[in-house]
Amino acid sequence: RSTPLYSSAASDVYKRQGHDSALTFSSPPHRLRHSYLFFYFVFWGTRANTQLLRQVSACDTVKKELVERDATEALCDLLEDHERMRSAGERPGGLGTVAIQSVLYVLTNMTLRSPDVAERLADLGGFDRVRQVEASYPDKPKLLRQCCLLVRNSAVRSAKVREVLLKGGMEAVVRRVKERHADQCGDVCAAALRDMGLADYNA
Fold first, then answer.
1. Which of 151, 133, 6 lies closest to 78, judged by CA?
2. What local confidence, expressed as pLDDT, does residue 81 receive?
3. How far is it between the farthest Cα atoms of the chain?
4. Terminal alpha carbon distance of the chain
């Protein structure tokens, strides 16, 4: 069964990438267990699949659908399983850490102007998992940049999330990334620190 929302949004992106044929998505089931398997399939699939979901998740209508279908929970679970994702990505033809970066990218899109999603992510312990990702991949600036973008989007409109981030030690995480990768991550790190409410964000 196809979901018109997914089919339409995906087909639009697919056609913009120069393809002629229509693209349809099978409707992800509502239950978390099935959503979890759906995201495993997408993120462990092809590079085109990861790019596609990253693009369609920027659409507000698609974001709403993803939230309703337990995507926040599913993506949070995937972050917790980042070691397994990396191992799968390192196999021949795998995506390396691109899959983990894509999970973060979709969460970044979902939390943009959506404090309710950011607060749900905080309730699920999602930012603890972001800290684990930072600790596991200190030499991956693109991945770390995405972590900081997620922190910024989540903090900017929610006092609750800012409190969770600061109490959980996210300031130290972001400052560490800023110090190690100033050229590639300095701007987003400063923005994340600012939106967490820190006056010395440029220090």
1. 133
2. 76
3. 53
4. 53
